Amino acid sequence: MILKELDFKSEAQDRHYFEKLEQEGFPNKKSEDYRHISLKDMLERKLSLNANIENNLYEDYISDDFYSLIFIDQAFDLEHSNLPSDISFSSSSKAKNDSKKNLSLLSEAFYEKDNILTISKSLDKPIMIINVSSGVDKFFANNLHIKVENEIKVDILEIFVSNEETANVYCINRDFFIENSKLSYAKLNLSSHKDILNINNTIYVNKGECTLNAIERGSKQSINNYDVFLDEEFSSINMHGIIEIKDNQNIANTIKIHHNKKNTSSNQTFKQILDNNSRAVFNSQITINKNCSYSKAHQSSQSILLNDEARMFNEPRMMIFTDELEASHGATVGSLNEEAINYMKLRGLSQAQCESMLIKAFLTEIYDYVKNPIIKDYIDGHISRISI
């Protein structure tokens, strides 16, 4: 099948969303959010839907320090997952949501039911969601609703991994519902540099707090769409991101945060390291609606380009319709400090050592936002052994 031609009607499991996708079409360069994002490779590649349920790549990543939820080729693997009785994983009929964006509609068209992970009690270990895949020129769609309830705190790490030869297209939906609770969610993308990932995140925070830490090192192209709704007073979202890419990798973060009540807060800090011909996009819009006074909104994107071929596109913006608030936004693009490099060289360090130390210092702030020590150690261990 070729996605651009919408020739998968016979494969669609949800005709409602398929027909809506037919009406709306795919995003293009005329869209504000996709001026610097090309979907050509994703939409024009010939793809198949065959899955390999024998994939055991998850064994290299699973850890006894976590409860685990495993998706193999985007199909839930109950046999090898390890969830406690305090967590409910279920499938249910889908509630129609006509506000979903174009690429979310694409994913929705390929599954009949919603996968729901409900967490209503505190856990003694964090949860790890492992997505492993195999094959070449396959298309995978998947959804997961994560619900956190009852004044608890939950830590989740989600990883995306595949072998070096994998070259597939993924369209994944993640919906988060935080009800008077705290969710710390970290995403680690270590997938093949031939894969294309499109991940659509919708986050609803009602009198709670969501902290999201995203680390992007894998994929040929990764498009991360975030829609965040702060729908009750004293709701907050903290978003931190690292993009560390090279060669012809393309990573885009497109973010929309809606402050819908007073005394809500949002904070964004993203840092990018780009080498060779890589490209990255930080496109973020914060909307603070009428009658949302005493809200706080901060937005920051900082980038380092390691050569002249790398490209960074920053579009931070705010739409403010109320008074009495605290807000700031900004974006910087630069290179590594030559004076610092020369100073370090005089003390016996090589060029490569100098650059590595400066990059690590630049990114440390974001890694430190991961507060759970088990998740932090896990990320550090896998980052240190995998070169970009």
How does this model look, in words?
This protein has 388 residues and is an alpha/beta fold. The protein has one domain (3-336). Helix content is 15%, strand content 44%. The protein has six helices and 19 strands. The strands form two sheets. The protein has a ten-stranded mixed beta sheet with strand order 2-1-5-7-9-11-13-15-17-19, with helices on one face. A nine-stranded mixed beta sheet has the order 3-4-6-8-10-12-14-16-18, covered by helices on one side. Helix 1 (15-24) packs antiparallel against helix 3 (102-108) and helix 4 (338-345) packs across helix 5. It is globular and about 65 Å long. The two termini are 32 Å apart. The mean pLDDT is 91.
Main sheet specs: 10 strands, mixed
Structural class: alpha/beta
Number of helices: 6
Give the % helix.
Answer: 10-25%
Unreliable sequence segments: none
Task: Write down the secondary-structure element order.
Answer: HHEEEHEEEEEEEEEEEEEEEEHHH
- Beta-strand content estimate: 35-45%
- Tell me the count of domains: 1
The whole-angstrom Rg is 21 Å
Oligomer: single chain
Q: How would you describe the shape?
A: globular
**Termini Cα gap:** 32 Å
The overall pLDDT, averaged over residues, is 91
Strand order of the largest sheet: 2-1-5-7-9-11-13-15-17-19
The tally of beta strands, per DSSP, is: 19
Summary, kept brief:
With 388 residues, this protein is of the alpha/beta class. The protein has six helices and 19 strands. The two termini are 32 Å apart.
Break the fold down into its secondary structure elements and pairings.
Elements (H helix, E strand, L loop, with lengths): L14 H10 L15 H5 L22 E6 L2 E2 L10 E7 L8 H7 L4 E7 L7 E7 L2 E13 L4 E10 L4 E13 L2 E9 L5 E11 L2 E8 L4 E10 L5 E10 L4 E10 L5 E10 L4 E10 L7 E10 L5 E10 L5 E9 L3 H8 L5 H17 L5 H13 L3
Parallel strand pairs: 1-5, 4-6, 5-7, 6-8, 7-9, 8-10, 9-11, 10-12, 11-13, 12-14, 13-15, 14-16, 15-17, 16-18, 17-19
Antiparallel strand pairs: 1-2, 3-4
Helix pairs in contact: 1-3, 4-5
